[in-house]
């Protein structure tokens, strides 16, 4: 079986600085795969490259069997790859409902869009309760929910989440992680970038530890959770 996403020997540079130095990994349909690692390891750069926002200097990306090389970002969304970026990037002056509508900008099936907006409200009831309010009035955690809901509005085959737990209270973080588990149960395939290694490894089928642009270690999330070097470096144990 071919994977939904296959990344082979991917390299990405900012000018002369190589941020991603030849990484390979794949995501099977139905899996949650996580990239963990410290600041500057190249996780965000990897996601932005998969979205078409950055150009790789070399390597191959196959999504659903098709090469993404040279495909513009909006086309990549229409192929089924959605990105909920670091820092959320919601539109603060637009209402919650309008933000969700924008996530469906490539779709024309009105009834389907309405159904998916309702699905976002079912997933995150607070968004439904406050649908007519400006999104800027939401708390950080609620904005993260909106960013996830918006990314789901494109009906992605693969949902990429960049640091969904950043800056959230433990309770909000728990809610976001539970939602990831729920989305997986509903059949969504997820590529998750996280600094919170404990949370990400607990729920990932497959995990890759990135260090200065390379993948240092790969394995099932629960296995890495018990790996001594991972525990020392990423889980703060002696
Ligand atoms: P973080 O969690 O801090 O976002 P990360 O693992 O996602 O870390 P990246 O943001 O991908 O890491 O950064 C990888 C490397 O590329 C870092 O050394 C960073 O300083 C560098 N970098 C990122 N964006 C740029 C840019 N626009 N121009 C130059 N260098 C950049």
UniProtKB/TrEMBL annotation:
<feature type="domain" description="ABC transporter">
    <location>
        <begin position="5"/>
        <end position="237"/>
    </location>
</feature>
<dbReference type="GO" id="GO:0016887">
    <property type="term" value="F:ATP hydrolysis activity"/>
</dbReference>
<dbReference type="GO" id="GO:0005524">
    <property type="term" value="F:ATP binding"/>
</dbReference>
<dbReference type="InterPro" id="IPR003439">
    <property type="entry name" value="ABC_transporter-like_ATP-bd"/>
</dbReference>
<dbReference type="Pfam" id="PF00005">
    <property type="entry name" value="ABC_tran"/>
</dbReference>
<keyword id="KW-0813">Transport</keyword>
<dbReference type="InterPro" id="IPR017871">
    <property type="entry name" value="ABC_transporter-like_CS"/>
</dbReference>
<dbReference type="GO" id="GO:0015807">
    <property type="term" value="P:L-amino acid transport"/>
</dbReference>
<dbReference type="InterPro" id="IPR030660">
    <property type="entry name" value="ABC_branched_ATPase_LivF/BraG"/>
</dbReference>
<keyword id="KW-0547">Nucleotide-binding</keyword>
<keyword id="KW-0029">Amino-acid transport</keyword>
<comment type="similarity">
    <text>Belongs to the ABC transporter superfamily.</text>
</comment>
<dbReference type="InterPro" id="IPR003593">
    <property type="entry name" value="AAA+_ATPase"/>
</dbReference>
<dbReference type="InterPro" id="IPR027417">
    <property type="entry name" value="P-loop_NTPase"/>
</dbReference>
<protein>
    <submittedName>
        <fullName>ABC transporter ATP-binding protein</fullName>
    </submittedName>
</protein>
<keyword id="KW-0067">ATP-binding</keyword>
<dbReference type="GO" id="GO:0015658">
    <property type="term" value="F:branched-chain amino acid transmembrane transporter activity"/>
</dbReference>
<dbReference type="InterPro" id="IPR052156">
    <property type="entry name" value="BCAA_Transport_ATP-bd_LivF"/>
</dbReference>
């Amino acid at each position: 079986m071919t994977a939904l996403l296959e990344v082979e020997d991917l390299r990405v540079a900012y000018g002369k600085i190589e941020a991603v130095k030849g990484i390979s990994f794949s995501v099977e349909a139905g899996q949650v795969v996580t990239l963990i690692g410290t600041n500057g390891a190249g996780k965000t750069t990897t996601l932005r490259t998969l979205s078409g926002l950055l150009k790789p200097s070399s390597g191959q990306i196959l999504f659903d069997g098709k090469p993404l090389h040279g495909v513009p970002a909006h086309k990549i969304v229409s192929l089924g790859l959605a990105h909920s970026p670091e820092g959320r990037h919601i539109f603060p002056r637009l209402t919650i409902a309008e933000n969700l509508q924008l996530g469906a900008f490539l779709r024309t099936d009105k009834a389907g869009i309405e159904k998916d907006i309702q699905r976002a409200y079912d997933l995150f009831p607070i968004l439904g309760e406050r649908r007519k309010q400006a999104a800027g009035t939401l708390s950080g955690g609620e904005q993260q929910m909106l960013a996830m809901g918006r990314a789901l509005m494109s009906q992605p085959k693969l949902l990429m989440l960049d640091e969904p737990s950043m800056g959230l209270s433990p309770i909000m973080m728990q809610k976001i992680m539970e939602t990831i588990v729920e989305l997986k149960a509903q059949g969504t395939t997820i590529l998750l970038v996280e600094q919170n290694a404990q949370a990400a490894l607990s729920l990932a089928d497959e995990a890759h530890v990135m260090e200065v642009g390379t993948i240092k270690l790969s394995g099932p999330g629960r296995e890495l959770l018990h790996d001594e070097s991972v525990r020392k470096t990423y889980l703060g144990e002696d």
